[in-house]
Amino acid sequence: MTDDSLWETPAVTILRSQPGFDLEGLDRNSTPGFTGKKADGERLLEERGAVLSGLQELLYANGRSGDSRSVLLVLQGMDTSGKGGMVRHVVGHVDPQGVDHASFGVPTDEEKQHHYLWRIKKQLPRGGYLGVFDRSHYEDVLVVRVHDLVPPNVWGARYDEINQFEKELVDAGTTIVKVAMFVSLDEQKKRLQERLDRPEKYWKYNPGDVTERKLWPAYQEAYQAMLDKTSTEHAPWYVVPCDRKWYSRIAVTELLIDAFESLDLSWPPADFDVEIEKARLAES
Ligand code: ADP
């Protein structure tokens, strides 16, 4: 069996959030579209990671030649869904010099003084870069909604505003890959337990994670609303089951490869006379 045939349906097709999608019915331990096993997935991650790396270099090279386009990976998921691992094991395949990475935690005092998109706009990828958001503006319709941090009419207006914001971004040349990462309640418990059992993982444990866990149904409702209202033609959501890390990583690798390929890039031509430069070099 060739690697290509391990995907019976491409990730970009099978994971795309469709109208009417019901989050409650999502099997978070599933591997949609993929027929292989963990070992196949791990091997594929290396192979396809190399492909991703080549494509990112192509974008970076074009950026150096003035191309203003970029790719933005938005990772949104509950604690322990594997956002950090995604950055390390998927984005980690590409040259860090071409990556604009940003993570969004509780807003600072300064950020609180501004519109919620203010801090987001400051971190958008430059032309030629792969931007990575570990959490994003979607926190402003997730944690904010669950904890009533602003009144419902305020967070309620944000869905349309976010759609509009993303439309402008896409029109300006950013391809947005929005990945909604979902672990099951059981798997989250296991991962939190591991953080408590292993001293090298204490740093990842935050007592607040257990508090949020108790709000699971409210979060699921907020995530459902996010998918319903902000999966658009210009910036669709991809729903990724994350109980099996190896699966979520190969799936996101494929989503990124697809995004880069859609840019239809080729190597930028030399902005100097190659023959003259060869002669000059030979003489030097
Ligand atoms: P992580 O838990 O991903 O390692 P941090 O501890 O830095 O990262 O911060 C994440 C926390 O910040 C999460 O609990 C998240 O819900 C919260 N957060 C992010 N954005 C906002 C926001 N706009 N308003 C309130 N809380 C936010």
Walk me through what this model shows:
The protein is 46% helix and 11% strand. It has 284 residues and is of the alpha/beta class. The protein has one domain: Rossmann fold. A five-stranded parallel β-sheet has the order 2-3-1-4-5, with helices on both faces. Helix 2 (38-64) packs parallel to helix 12. The chain is globular and about 70 Å long. 33% of the residues are buried. Residues 79, 104-107, 135, 139-140, 143-144 line the site of adenosine-5'-diphosphate (ADP). InterPro entries: P-loop_NTPase, Polyphosphate_phosphotransfera, PPK2-rel_1, PPK2-related. Residues 38-261 form the Polyphosphate kinase-2-related domain. Pfam families: PPK2. Keywords: Kinase, Transferase.
Helical content band: 40-55%
Q: Mean pLDDT across all residues, rounded?
A: 96
- Ligand names: adenosine-5'-diphosphate
Q: Helix-strand pattern, N to C?
A: HHEHEHHEHHHEHHHEHH
Percent in strands:
5-15%
Q: By CATH's scheme, which homologous superfamily applies?
A: P-loop containing nucleotide triphosphate hydrolases
The domain tally reads: 1
Number of strands: 5
Oligomer: single chain
Shape: globular
CATH class: Alpha Beta
Distance between the termini: 52 Å
InterPro entries: P-loop_NTPase, Polyphosphate_phosphotransfera, PPK2-rel_1, PPK2-related
Pfam family, one: PPK2
Keywords: Kinase, Transferase
Domain Polyphosphate kinase-2-related: 38-261
